[in-house]
Amino acid sequence: MKLLLLIGVVLLMAWIWRFSRRARMGDGVNRKPPLAPQTDMVRCLHCAVHLPAAEAQHGRLGPYCSTEHRQLAEP
Ligand SMILES: [Zn+2]
Fold this sequence. Notes:
- The chain has helices spanning about 1-25, 65-75; strands at about 40-45, 50, 55-60, 65.
- By secondary structure, it is α+β, with helices and mostly antiparallel strands.
- The strands form 2 sheets. The protein has a two-stranded antiparallel ribbon with strand order 1-2. The chain has a two-stranded antiparallel sheet with strand order 3-4.
- A hairpin with a 4-residue loop joins β3 (about 55-60) and β4.
- The longest helix is centred in the first third of the chain and has 24 residues, at about 1-25.
- The protein binds zinc ion.
- Zinc ion binds next to loops.
């Protein structure tokens, strides 16, 4: 009878240890927000705003944030 009680206590302690460990680890799930995919950033030559290269207007001298700024910088 004493042995059964000892086994029960050990099992209970193991369960508590696992439960607290899982709570600390966050269920093994990565809870960090996913990183945004890396994009190349360029700087507008007129107003110096940074924007993704794919969205930039490319002039003779370099990238611009908008057609308006490209026309203002490169008449
Ligand atoms: Zn600009």
